[in-house]
Amino acid sequence: MDDNLLETLELSCTSEEELPLVAKELFEFSGLLKVWLFVGDLGAGKTTLIKQLCKYLGVGDEVASPTFSIINEYLADGNPIYHFDFYRLNDKEEAIDIGVSEYFDSGNYCFIEWPQKVEQLLPEELILIRIKGQKDGKRDFKVTKYD
Q1: Which of 71, 98, 134, 139 is the most buried (most CB within 10 A)?
Q2: Strands 139-146 and 5-13: what pairing?
Q3: Which domains does the chain have, with CATH numbers?
């Protein structure tokens, strides 16, 4: 992945009220890349950020972590957005069985929590967002663009 590193962006926010601005900056930074990886400890704010990203795109449905279903699909202006949570995945074969490669190649947004479980299946062109939550509620985002 490091061979195609394009650029990085660092952002911080001190409250959820600042997440709309974070979402806007992430979309401006991402360009045409549609596969986004979210890495962080449990409770770091991965799903919270994905909710804001979906809201920014115009999703009207409730956005929730697909921890048990592995994938949720939302619609924004008739276009699907796929939200994956691979936390409970036992092995990459389970991901292959649900056809993740087809989702990743669809040209639609794919927001992926716990991507390290399917690292061998990920495309080369993607956005990696590392989230670090602080005890005071602050969140730091280190965003790396691979193209």
Answers
A1: 139
A2: antiparallel
A3: 15-142 (3.40.50.300)
Would you say residue 3 has pLDDT above 70? no
pLDDT in tens, 30-61: 999 999 999 999 888 999 999 999 999 999 88
147 confidence band (pLDDT: 50, 70, 90): confident
Q: Measured between alpha carbons, how far is 135 from 55 in angstroms, rounded to an integer?
A: 26
Query: Cα–Cα distance between 69 and 145 in angstroms, integer?
Result: 28
Provide the sign of the torsion angle of the four alpha carbons 26, 36, 11, 9, taken in this order: negative
Q: Are 89 and 68 in contact (CB under 8 A)?
A: no
Q: Which tens digit of pLDDT belongs to each residue from 69-88?
A: 899 999 999 999 999 999 99
pLDDT value of residue 22: 96
